[in-house]
Amino acid sequence: MISQRIGRLLTQIASSRSTVIYSRQTHRMLTEQDIKVTTKAASRLKEVLDDGERLRLEVDGGGCSGFEYKIRLDKKLNNDDLLWKTESGAEIIVDEMSLGYIKGATVDYVEDLMKASFRIVNNPVAEKGCSCGSSFAPKMD
């Protein structure tokens, strides 16, 4: 009983400071300056996520332009993950390193004749990308 009350209190305190506590790990919340989420993406997330699942955004070396976006559902929360919480309560997670390559970008849900998927669009860090939108070359300032 007491540990549940302490847990709820810590969660309330953390959320008031843009921080979320999960099993004694603290994770910084992402802001609009870090990442944007379209209404369509937030709505679709609410439909597809199971309990405990989050949408994970990663950037990895590879792809036809040098770096590629990796987007998947994940239940694991790592120490260096940053969180975005939609108004519907769905969560998006990004690790610190990947955020450096997508900071200021938008997460969208796109449907076309070939596929439907979550995508990173309007990435201010990307100089150019491939035609399918899954990889990019960063600006070299």
TrEMBL record:
<dbReference type="GO" id="GO:0051537">
    <property type="term" value="F:2 iron, 2 sulfur cluster binding"/>
</dbReference>
<dbReference type="GO" id="GO:0016226">
    <property type="term" value="P:iron-sulfur cluster assembly"/>
</dbReference>
<dbReference type="GO" id="GO:0005739">
    <property type="term" value="C:mitochondrion"/>
</dbReference>
<protein>
    <recommendedName>
        <fullName>Core domain-containing protein</fullName>
    </recommendedName>
</protein>
<dbReference type="Pfam" id="PF01521">
    <property type="entry name" value="Fe-S_biosyn"/>
</dbReference>
<dbReference type="GO" id="GO:0051539">
    <property type="term" value="F:4 iron, 4 sulfur cluster binding"/>
</dbReference>
<dbReference type="GO" id="GO:0005506">
    <property type="term" value="F:iron ion binding"/>
</dbReference>
<dbReference type="InterPro" id="IPR000361">
    <property type="entry name" value="ATAP_core_dom"/>
</dbReference>
<comment type="similarity">
    <text>Belongs to the HesB/IscA family.</text>
</comment>
<dbReference type="InterPro" id="IPR016092">
    <property type="entry name" value="ATAP"/>
</dbReference>
<dbReference type="InterPro" id="IPR035903">
    <property type="entry name" value="HesB-like_dom_sf"/>
</dbReference>
<feature type="domain" description="Core">
    <location>
        <begin position="34"/>
        <end position="133"/>
    </location>
</feature>
